[in-house]
Every structure is written in structure tokens, then in C-alpha cells.
Amino acid sequence: MKWGIFLLSLVFLSGCATYKQDIDAGLSLAKQGEWKAAEEKLEAVLDNPQDKLLYYMEVGALAQNQGDFERSNTLLEQAERLSDTFFPDTFSNRSWALLTNPRQSNYRGSGLERVYISYLKSLNYLALAEQEEGRSQKQQLKDAALVEVRRIAIKLNEIQAQTPTYQDLNAKENQAFYMKALSWLSNFYTGGRDTDQFLYRDDAWARYMEGLQYEISGEYDDARISYQQAARLYQDGYAKQYELPELSAERAWLDTIRMMQKSGFRQDEIQRKIDAKLSAPMQQTLEQYQDKNAELIVLEHQGFIPDKSEMTLLLYADPRAYSLVLEPLHGGGSLENNDAFRWFTMVYADVNPLNLIANYKAGGAWGTFSGIFTKRVILGRPAWQQLSAINLDQLLTEQTLRITVPYYQGFTLDKYQPSLSVNGTQPDAPTSLPSSDTFTMASLADIALQEQLAQAQRDIYEGLVRELLRSWLAYQVAANVQDEGASLLLNLIGQVAIFVSSAADTRNWLTLPAQVRLTRQPVAPGGYSPTYKVKQNTFFLGDVHLKANEMKVWNLRNPD
């Protein structure tokens, strides 16, 4: 049995290495804009039962980047069905994941990923509607796009119902000191950190896209409501949480005001909103929207959401303090190791009073200071006695266990300011127009990072329980062998096999963009050949003819 565990571990490690290499190879192709080659690579590695949701999401996004909108929607609809249902969570599936690693279980996705399945589908339907000549079919496709944004609203409302709002967080900041102290004390056993501030509670950009889809369909009051929801979210805390420019809220307020104008609101109401919400430059932008104008809208989906890495922690027992101690494995001064250590210090290190006291009792003043570099799990005497009853305390004092958790390495988002040139192709059209400002409206990279921060404590405790169980089972097998030499040999082999096979679940939807930038340019009806420049890259839309009141959406995927 022990040899079986060892051989399974070797096979598993080989499979993990191949999986990671193939994922990185596919992602590398995508970053070069080689969408078809990237799809073929990722399709091969993700075509298995536990990664089925990831398969449909990744391949669906890559199909959209190739302009194959119908196939993209077919794939994303499969992802939609999987993400909205409970996976068959069989005993064998859970048991195998527990004895190997969590990547062997079915991937279930995150709230962000569920929302952006519908987001991409709505863009697919919009692109298909623009390609359609028949009025009836065009309207059906626009209606299908609206179905997707209503799905977005439903999903966001579900997420919102389970998380505190920005108003709740602001109220917590403004509450009396004694209430803050009680809240602080209640966080002792969650690492002393208030994870509420990192939660994905709503999505201002997705709400904004609801407004845009409603506006395109001529449902101006619904568009106003959605734009206003987005504006309030940006203003109340979304922009601050994800480090977006304050002007993102102003842009949403501007579009709210435009919909008020189209919906027949009184001029005095509109003027009050303009005076309250728009700066002088944004008021000038509002004045560019004249009756019968067309509009070019550029959605730049830039970069890629970061991929997760694995951090190795060493677990050992401290019987004097009736506790377990975790510390990061020090691997030198490379950038990756420094990022891992900073993540550990930020998320896991002992900073609350109970752990500081335990560290002090175990090691004096130096023990208190060393807590900055460790995480202590205080069990107490009763729990320690239970560990002793099953000889787990002996196992932990004789060997060091390896716990593996996911984390994000440091990343820097592109802050380059793009430019849009709208060149006229007809004699009566302007040869060039200055572009409106481009705004970063969403940072999916920051959302993913903060979601990981919010669940970091769960990850470390699940990893701890998993490795304790695996080690205890292997220890029991070796302990029941009668021959002392064989028992020692099996115990050594088991320790090595379990140590090297520890792994974390680092899966996520990697072809999502890191951030989304928005440019909206009102133009007179006519023919144009728009170009969009960002850094060293120039993108061409081709020749387009815009009619009065027509809205043209340019869904631009920038891999750089």
C-alpha cells in the first residue's frame, strides 16, 4: 500500500508538471495574439472531467477573439449551464482530491467568472446583430444580448445579497470606537483581518454594460437605471477598492444624464444632476452629444488576468504552546520568492494578540518578533490531547509537513493612455476628430487578487487538514508493519512521497482581460476609418458608415 502511495505520487507529480507546462504554453500563445494556436493547446490540456467548466470558458473566450461569435456562444452557454448547477460531487471525487490535491476535484468557478460568462455572451450577440442585414433577425439578436445582461443583473443581485454593501463598510468605518474594538476582537481566529473589504460584492462595469446594451436597444429608462447603478457603485467604493480613476464614476453619471435627456426628464432636474455630478471638462464632453449624432464606442479588453502560483509552507508542532506553526519555505532572494514571502506576511503572519502571546510564551521576546514570519494555529490543551490520542502529535514532532497554498505574484497593470483617431472617408466627413478621454472602467486583475485574499484563510486551513490526514494515514500504515526495518523504510518513503506531492488549486479563467478601457466618441453621420493606438500597437476597425443615432461598438481584444 505504501509503495502504491509513492508510485501514485510520482505519477501525479509528472501529470501536474505537464499540466502546468501546457497551460503556460497556451497562455504564452494567447499573449502573442495567436488565438487559434492557443485554443488548440488549451483545448488539449483542459479536456477532462474536472476541468470541464474551465474548458468551455477558455475556449469560448478564444473563439470570440477569433471573431467566431456563434461558436463562442455555444461554448459559453455550456459554461453557463455548468456554472449555474451543482456539480456531481461524488464520494470518490472528494476522496481522491483529499488524498492527492484539490485540482483533482471539479472546478466550480468564482462569482467573477459566472458574471463574465454572460458578459462575453452579450458582446457576442451584439456583434452578430451588427453583422445581420434583416431587421427582424437583428432585433432578435439584440434581444438575446439583453437577456444576457439581465442574467448579469440576476447573478450580481445574488452576490450582493450574500455580501456587505459599500454602505455597510462605510458605516463600519464611521461607527463608535468600542464597536470597532469588538469587531477587531472578533477577527482573532480569522487572522485578525477583516476580509469583508476584499469581497466581490457587485460589479460597476457589468452594470454599466447593462446600461449600454439597453441604450443600444432604445430602452432609455432602463439604460438610465443601469448607468445610475454603475455610477453609484463607482462612487461609493468600487473605484477605490479596485484602484480605478475617480472619473469612472463621472463617465457613468454623464451617461445617466444623457438617458435622462432622452427619457424626457425636466430640464431643471437634468441641470441639477449636471451641476452635482459633472466637472467642467466632463460637462464639455456632454455637450459633444448633439441630436442625430452617431457614436463610436471602443471597449479595449487589455492584457490577461494573472495566473496563480504555489507557496510552500512548512508545518511543525510546538507542544509547549499546544499549537501548530506554519512558516514559508525560504528559497532565496528571487522575485518569486520575495512575492511569496510578502504575500505570507500580508495574509497569514501572526499579528493578532492571541498569537503574539503564544509566540512570546514559546520563545520569549524573540518568539514574539518571529511571529511576523510565522502563522501559529492555537489548538489548546483539550485539542492537543485528542491529537495525542491518535499519535498525531508524535508524527508532527518527528517530521515536518509541507502545506501548499495558492497566491498571486506581484503584477503591474498597463497605465498607458490610448488614442482614438476617427478619420473621415467621405468628402463631407471630418478628416480627423480629437478622441474623447479613455477611462479604465474595470480591473479584473484586482478583483481576482482580492477574491484570493478573501479566501486565503480557508485555503490554508483546508491545506493543513488535507496534509495532516494524508500523513496520518501513511504513518498508520508504516506503524502497523511488524518488521522494524521495513517499517522505517516505508515511513521514510511515505514522508518523501507526501512531501513532494503536496499541491494547491491554482486554476482560474486565464484568458479574461486584466482590465477594460472605455472610449466613447460622438461623431456626425458619415463614413469613417477609425484607428486605435496603444503603446506600440495600432488597431484598425476598417471602413464603417454610421447613420444618425447609430451606436457602433468596437470590441477590441488587446493581448499586450
Automatic annotation (TrEMBL):
<protein>
    <recommendedName>
        <fullName>Tetratricopeptide repeat protein</fullName>
    </recommendedName>
</protein>
<dbReference type="InterPro" id="IPR011990">
    <property type="entry name" value="TPR-like_helical_dom_sf"/>
</dbReference>
